[in-house]
Amino acid sequence: LDALQELTGRSVRVGLEPEPGCTVETTADALAPLAAVGHPRIGVCVDTCHLATSFEDPDTALDALAEAGVPVVKSQLSAALHADRPRLPAVREALAAFDEPRFLHQTRTLTATGLRGTDDLGEALGAAALPDTGPWRAHFHVPLHAAPAAPLTSTLPVLKAALTRLVGGPHPLTRHLEVETYTWQALPPALRPRARAQLADGIAAELALARDLLTDLGLKELP
User: Fold this and answer.
1) What pTM value is reported for the model?
2) What class does CATH assign to 2-81+139-216?
């Protein structure tokens, strides 16, 4: 990459992304291998849906990356599916509507002994597959501007906390942010956009929300 910049004048950086269900699932998992690389071109991509699904605290995660000298190459602004009381039949019925076959929706809960999880939401909903005394979070990128109806919600508060730490201080931890919702056609049928115009409106609403979060933190729009 150094040679590429010397040849072309273009600087390329690589952001490796921890993801639920992978060998490197959390930012904590990524610390040692990326710190060992020790190069400003090689860092982490912080996906706020993944961060939330694994119940990582944004301040703790980002402070640890900074202390280890691991750069945040970019952050993907996204929200996971959150169920506060998965033991209730109404909550499980609502979750089942998001159990679709196109993607794996790794599901996690935080217990006294640590993080527990399944490879997919349907597996979590099976009998005794996952402890249900505490909240569940599923790796399902829900639209930022449209949290699911009660009794479910999204992890938008985790996104907001992460964004405050990423760009809310005197010096940003990253200058590359993107909104990443790819599940529009995987949403429950009643929530899916039914026409291209509806999809465009949904994407625009997400971008508008992200813009508002940034301006609330003191950033200014370009003229």
Assistant:
1) 0.94
2) alpha beta
